[in-house]
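step 3/5: co-fold with alpha-D-ribofuranose
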Amino acid sequence: MAKPIIIDTDPGQDDAVAILLALASPEELEVLAITAVAGNVPLDLTVTNSLALVELANRTEVPVYRGSIRPMVKELITAEYVHGPTGLDGADLPPPTIEEAEGHAVDKIIDIVKASSEKVTVCTLGPLTNVALALVKDPSIKENIGQVVSMGGGFFEGGNTTPTAEFNIYVDPHAAHVVFSSGIPIVLMPLDVTHKALTTKDRLQRFADLGTPAGTATAGMLDFYDRWDIEKYGLPGGPLHDPTVIAYLLQPDLFVGKHVPLEVEIAPGPTLGMTVIDWWGVTDDEPNAIVMNDIDSDGFFDLLVERIGRL
Ligand code: RIB
Ligand code: CA
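step 4/5: write tokens
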């Protein structure tokens, strides 16, 4: 029986690969909805990009809903410096011919979760604004959310947006606090994992060698997207963040982590948006998250190439 999931996202090239991976895996994952949030680029673009991606995957039955245009408290910051002005630079996708579905993503998350006969897995690939607002509007939905699997945070790796904060958390730290303190089981894919999943040239070539529209788009997107991180970190490739969330659902044994207490700093100052974990159990705090800190990166890319090759 396929696992029911909602993908909340701010595409973004790495979000795009995560979405393609999920849509290429219908036997294991039933994508109930894609909900767009402002993040890497403004909301209009994350909606348009989400529509273009379900069309590229020939999965246009999956509804795309428009969500939050800005974070709960802070002003929106975006990341065109990484993703380009369209958010999907390098993909060369045509404008979508399909329309976004009726209804606001926050309301639709509530409706879909409450209507599901099975507990829903919520996958967050961007700022957690939509999911947090759904929990604030109708806290009862937490009873039918099995887990939230999130790309976000950084521990021993520090931050990629401030010295202490990773982008998804920093854009909306208050939303991350609402979700991580909700009592819903959390699985977190932080920079400590994603910085070990690098889009090296050999790996990019494997997508290009697929010779399919999805393979070519993936190679083009990642070739554009990784230039900023390669320059910044001096690594042989860019960290491929968001597909780790979907890969965890398909092959959890690719990852190694620990069940630990996790919280987010929401006080203004140099640590705003910092994800704080008690990795060594020095407090009596209740563990609320499985935080990953290692990945079989070869196995991860094997999975990505095989699945995207199915589209
Ligand atoms: O820090 C990386 C995260 O921020 C990824 O989800 C990327 O898409 C951006 O949203
Ligand atoms: Ca993202």
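step 5/5: annotate
The CA atoms of residues 139 and 182 lie 9 Å apart.
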